[in-house]
Design brief:
single chain; globular
Length: 225
């Protein structure tokens, strides 16, 4: 019943479900980790960096599969129908027909984010945006490691400040708790905070630093070359 559900929400065991959305930070951590670990895993003093390849390779890889999924999604009307088909599926199809191109520019988490094509692709947009920042960070780490670490710390502080400002301005809860928000606050928190790049810059930056340290000291961790 509804009463039992709300009682369960107050129990400690429900915290796993309530904080499940934080699991997305693992993707940002892994993305940051791989960027620096792959760059420094080889036993050379100064790793080479090919900027066009570093940017184009992930863009082409992610864009191809995004376009493939969007194309398959737009073909859904060929395989389904029903009395409620238009009400439930129609709006999502129309969003993809009108705004599929936003996904190619990876700006769907900022531009018309409340009515974007395939909501879950905000993750790809945020990772691509952070990837562009990471290219600059990696280049500086190669030239001046100390300045690179200072830049990473600065980025994290700016991200924290942005999150704090958004929470304060919109009077959002201090912790992510979508399941407790009403029909107005929930979408507001989603569109103004959760899908934005700055909300995940911390875990991404930790991944960058972790990958760099482990790659530079991989012998201490008994990693193979």
């Amino acid at each position: 019943s509804v009463v039992n559900y709300y009682e369960y929400m107050q129990q400690f065991s429900f915290s796993v479900i309530a904080n499940g959305s934080n699991g997305v930070e693992n993707y940002f951590f892994i993305a940051g980790f791989l960027i620096t670990f792959i760059r420094w895993r080889k036993p050379i003093d100064i790793p080479k960096i090919n900027l066009p390849k570093l940017l184009l390779k992930p863009y082409i890889r992610m864009s191809f599969f995004q376009l493939l999924v969007i194309a398959l999604f737009l073909m859904l009307p060929l395989f389904g129908n029903g009395p409620f088909w238009g009400d439930f599926v129609g709006p999502y199809l129309q969003s993809c027909r009108d705004r599929w191109w936003l996904n190619l520019f990876y700006i769907q988490n900022y531009w018309q984010s409340d009515d974007t094509c395939l909501y879950h692709t905000w993750l790809l947009a945020a990772i691509m945006q952070l990837y562009i920042v990471a290219v600059i960070v990696v280049w500086i780490l190669i030239k001046k490691p100390n300045i690179g670490f200072i830049l990473i710390i600065t980025i994290v502080i700016c991200g924290m400040a942005a999150v704090g400002a958004i929470v304060f301005i919109h009077k959002l809860p201090g912790a992510l708790s979508m399941y407790l928000l009403d029909g107005v606050s929930g979408p507001q928190m989603w569109n103004t905070l959760f899908i934005k790049t700055f909300d995940h810059v911390g875990s991404f930056s930790i991944g960058l630093v972790t990958g760099y340290i482990i790659a530079k000291h991989k012998d201490s961790f008994n990693f193979g070359k």
